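Chain A, query sequence.
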Amino acid sequence: MVASQPSRTWKPQDFAQQLYITEAAAQQQYQKLIDQGLMRTLEGGDGAEYAPLEDTAAAVQELSSDYQQWRVRIIEYIYSKPSESVYGFARAFKIKGDREE
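Chain A, predicted structure.
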């Protein structure tokens, strides 16, 4: 979304509208993108723009390209439940006394 419109100025409200989420959730996502170096706040603090580091920009471009080609598979992967073998592997690292969730 942000990378596809690199010259646009973004505000949390824009995220809420584009992603159909609450403004509170949008503010969190907006801040994460700034904290992770994908966006930078404009002078005066009136919004932010897409401004990733060079190596990050290349990764975003590659992911965008893959998403265009493999959209359904990527969405299925994101929403799929981990297999029992993944849970078993994770349990091997559980420290004794941790609560089961």
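The radius of gyration is 18 Å. Residues 54-79 form the longest helix (26 residues).
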